Amino acid sequence: MTLLRSLSGSLIIMAVLAVAAAVPSFAQTAPQIEPFSLPVRPVVLTQDIIKRFLYSFAPVGAQMKEEAAGNAVLSPEATARLNKKAAEYGFKDFNDWGETTRTIMVTYHWVTNPEPREEVEKAIASIPSMPNLTDKQKAEMIDGLKSGLATVEKARPSAENLAIVKKHVSSSKPLYKQWTSL
Fold first, then answer.
1. CA–CA distance, 46 with 165 (Å, rounded to integer)
2. Distance, C-alpha 27 to centroid of its chain
3. Closest among 19, 23, 174, 175 to 101, alpha carbons compared
4. Any alpha helices (H) in the chain, and if so which ranges?
5. Cα–Cα distance, 146 to 152 (Å, whole number)
6. Which of 54, 84, 97, 182 ranks highest by number of CB atoms within 10 Å?
7. DSSP state, 41?
8. Do 133 and 144 form a contact (C-beta atoms < 8 A)?
9. What's the burial of 114, exposed, middle or buried (CB within 10 Å: 0-12/13-18/19+)?
């Protein structure tokens, strides 16, 4: 049951955020790097990009929290400070850093969970025997898992991105844990 909740939650969150957050708007609203959100345009990763990302995660994240604290809308000055902080690590701007973050985190998830279909099929198979759910709830849960799986499978990273992130799994793991707990 725990696996089902975790898996269905991850898939559904990724599916909803993929639809809801089609275009990042960090310049207008307080910046957010949503857990399980999919990149709008996945970044083609290189060793250099991964290295810059790993070094930038804590300072850019801290700047993001500082600028967003109590602010629903960022001032042009705050946006400029975020862009400057991301640029210190070789990113074009904060939006570029955000897309890189989402690309790496989603790729990490694929590296560590390479067979989502198998997991979802196991979860779906367990739903009919859940006595505390109505038939309608069971059907909705199954539909949600199937829909989430379709979205996740379409977001499968390139073989090149998977290979690069695989080399950095141990370095990326703590950042992934932070990202998924935002």
1. 9
2. 19
3. 175
4. 2-20, 47-68, 76-87, 94-112, 116-126, 135-154, 159-166, 169-180
5. 10
6. 97
7. S
8. no
9. exposed
Task: Please give the backbone phi and psi of residue 136, each rounded to the nearest 5 degrees, phi first.
Answer: -65, -45
- Locate 124 and state its tokens: 């779906």
pTM of this structure: 0.73
Sign of CA pseudo-dihedral 97, 100, 106, 110: negative
DSSP structure class, residue 130: -
More confident residue, 27 or 114: 114
Between the alpha carbon of residue 149 and those of residues 22, 25, 50, 66, 139, the distances in Å are 18, 26, 27, 35, 15
Euclidean distance between CA atoms 126 and 49, whole angstroms: 41
How confident is residue 107, by pLDDT bands cut at 50, 70 and 90?
A: very high
- Check whether 48 has a pLDDT greater than 90: yes
